From TrEMBL:
Cofactor(s) recorded in Swiss-Prot or TrEMBL: Mn(2+)
Subunit structure, interactors included: Homotrimer.
The gene coding this protein: BnaC06g03700D
Gene Ontology terms for molecular function: hydrolase activity, acting on glycosyl bonds; metal ion binding; pseudouridylate synthase activity
Name of the molecule in the record: Pseudouridine-5'-phosphate glycosidase
GO cellular component: cytoplasm
Length: 326
């Protein structure tokens, strides 16, 4: 009883009885920033934010832990400081140590997938939460991080005209001036509608060294990218004073895109199964990712890992170029 009433008071403190500004200050006071990330932010060094749902829900254990560690190493080797973001026992953490990463990875899907709207609940109930792109953007911007690397962002789902399922990643990008580096958008989503929605949200979208917007597992989606940029330095120069975010879409490295057709047919089958089994809402993306991995005998997981590492490389170069702009 005591714990549930204190949870309630944490929720009301965060949401109801105080102004939005005070609520944000309160939430900020709960945030724990690791010493390395804190030092890097205050000295103006390059910092790269990393999300945690990709670890808990996007990949199976132990490949998820291995990948999370390798991605952090790539960021360090390229001159930036990694800041993996998650909520642990109700505390939003910016920068995780090895033991915290291990906990997140081994908890897997039992940890709550936390989008922006879920933050107050996870904090108030002192739960563990793996942050999606929308929640990670919120915390990264709170502490002034400007670059965020992930694999793929959420988007407009197929059949959104019936389900209204549009990821809050897109609206978060629309109001958060952070550069997000992804391999585009998966074909489990409706890619043309996702690009339209990003335009509505005033998100600047550019493909890296390509005229076409990439489709995660393949370099091509059939959709022209709204713009093209050819070097990390050019990306950094795009970071003008805007209120909206930037989506930098980096195509999967060529040697891994060959499996694209196999993965696409598995995706079609997984989509049919999701409809048959009535898997909807925030359970849909994790279901499809796991099912496509099973159906392709691990090929999609290997491609996913390769593209995330490539994004970490380019994202770190952008973060370093940005930190040298001032
Ligand atoms: N797409 C992927 N891998 C992922 C996700 C999306 O290829 O791990 C995760 C990200 O955390 C993203 C979230 O922010 O799923 C979007 O979920 P939803 O579609 O429920 O908004
Ligand atoms: Mn959704």
């Amino acid at each position: 009883m005591a714990s549930s009433s204190s949870s309630l008071s944490r929720i009301s403190t965060l949401q109801n009885h105080i102004s939005p500004l005070e609520a944000n200050n309160k939430l900020r006071s709960l945030v724990k920033i690791s010493p390395q990330v804190s030092e890097a932010i205050s000295s103006g060094r390059a910092v790269v934010a990393l999300e945690s749902t990709i670890i808990s829900h996007g990949m199976p254990y132990p490949q998820n832990l291995q990948t999370a560690k390798e991605v952090e190493s790539i960021v360090r080797e390229n001159g930036a400081v990694p800041a993996t973001i998650a909520i642990l026992n109700g505390v939003p953490c910016i920068g995780l140590n090895e033991e915290e990463l291990e906990r997140l990875a081994s908890l897997g899907k039992s940890i709550q997938k936390t989008a922006g709207r879920d933050i107050p609940h996870v904090v108030a109930t002192r739960a563990n939460g793996a942050t999606t792109v929308s929640a990670t953007l919120f915390f990264a911007s709170m502490v002034g991080i400007q670059v965020f690397v992930t694999g793929g962002i959420g988007g407009v789902h197929r059949h959104a005209n019936h389900t209204m399922d549009i990821s809050s990643d897109l609206t978060a990008l629309g109001r958060t001036p952070i550069a997000v580096i992804s391999a585009g958008v998966k074909s489990i989503l409706d890619i043309p509608k996702t690009l339209e929605y990003l335009e509505t949200q005033e998100v600047y979208v550019a493909a890296y060294k390509s005229d076409e917007f990439p489709a995660f597992f393949t370099e091509k989606s059939g959709c022209k990218a709204p713009s093209r940029v050819d070097s990390p330095e050019d990306y950094a120069n795009m970071k003008l004073n805007r209120k909206a975010g930037i989506l930098f879409a980096v195509p999967i490295p060529k040697q891994h895109s060959a499996a694209g057709n196999l993965i696409e047919s598995a995706t079609q089958r997984a989509l049919t199964e999701a409809r048959e089994q009535n898997v909807t809402g925030n359970a849909e993306t994790p279901f499809l990712l796991a099912r496509v991995n099973e159906l392709t005998g691990g090929t999609s997981l290997a491609a996913n890992i390769a593209l995330v590492k490539n994004n970490a490389l380019i994202g770190s170069q952008i973060a370093v170029a940005l930190s040298q702009l001032v």
